[in-house]
Amino acid sequence: MQTLHNLPRPTDGGWQMADGDVRHSAVRHPPSAIRHRGTSLRNLALALAAAFLLIAAAPPPDVALTDETSRAVHFYADIAKDKTVAVNFIFTSCSTICQPMSGTFAKAETLLGKRNARLVSVSIDPETDTPQKLAAWKKRFHGGASWTLLTGPEEEVDKLRKSLGVFTPDRINHTPMVVVFNDTSGKTTRVNGLTSAQAIIDAIDSVTPTAEDHGRAMYTNGPNADITIGDNTMSSVAMACAGCHSPDGHGKTEGGVAAPAITADALSHASPSRKREAYDPRHLIRAITLGFDSSGNPLAPSMPRYHLTRNDANDLVAFLLRLGTKPEPGLTDNAIRIGVLTPAASREAIVAWAAGVNERGGIYARRVEVSFDTEDVFVAIGGEAAAGEAGGDVPRVTISDPLRAAQLVEETLRRAGGGVTRATFVETMKSVQRREVSR
What we know:
This protein is of the alpha/beta class. The chain contains 14 helices and 17 strands. The chain has helices at residues 41-47, 75-80, 98-111, 131-140, 154-163, 197-207, 211-221, 241-245, 264-267, 281-290, 310-320, 344-359, 402-416, 422-438; strands spanning 55-56, 64-67, 72-74, 84-90, 117-123, 147-151, 177-182, 187-192, 227-229, 232-234, 252-254, 257-259, 305-306, 335-340, 367-371, 379-381, 396-397. The protein has an 8-stranded mixed β-sheet, with helices on both faces. A 4-stranded parallel β-sheet has the order 15-14-16-17, covered by helices on one side. Strand 7 (177-182) and strand 8 (187-192) form a beta hairpin.
């Protein structure tokens, strides 16, 4: 594995830093448990919306199970650790929802591509569902290597179901919920297993850690890497940046050692007192891995030098360049505020549009909030009658059909990604509008 401990000095060049999205914060909103005895599949599918909502969750228990090849596995250590997992619960004698759920999983597997993700189906009838039966079930649906089926002691399966919030006392009443999570990003979501395979892929993408998520985890918990302090190299010692520089990056003094502020603002400006220039990504990586500041001065001996891979170094820098920054106006981790400047007659339709978006889980787990002015809004929707009303740097969509404008805003936000800024929104909107004109 390539490391950056022997990174050349800054005059020797650097590399491009990976892009990072804004992390979605958790929205606690546990889904309703909807039972399906005597309910048609169609009504059940309508009852369980395809929407997914991000919530905070601890890693699942490391229960001991057996996969369809008869291999003994631990759920967290062998299946879920360091990857995105979508898990549903089935049993092979099920005559209702389990077959379409498995068909959807099989289709979703073909859409995974190179994602670091795994689909997992856990039997809730372990007494009947032997590894051999699960292997036959998987073969029936033409499952591949990224789909694992598990069985095991009932108490272990129940422990897992309870931890994921999908436990029901008997298997007949189990729900078609798919739980999707990633322990690195700390995000979990749920999606109806009777909807499309693409909905499952979208849920996987919504929890998969971005470069910034990974960098935040390293900053907070310490990277899994060797470190050198002075002349001593220690193996895989988790020394977290936040321990000395504080979680908010503003620094602190402990044991007579003063750790400076390393917020994005502090790093991006020269420090006359420390006789250093402003940092750029390449100089930050040099400081982290070799212990020299942006002007080539050696850092304090107490500063660890981390033996990071290139990707880990890029991800940590991606987070540092956002640390302590102010959010975009009208944009928080769980909401996006949209100004509506259209005539009153059209506002009801836009409010209904926003409600529909929120019922479907929002946009990257952010709910849409409607405001009838431009105070603290991310983007404004306004027809010709409202031209010029949006002030400052508020992007404004002003096509003649207000509802279509709202739909274009939604499409643009989804294409721009969870880390959208006003600048990236405007650039993405241009491509969306070009495609709209060409239709």
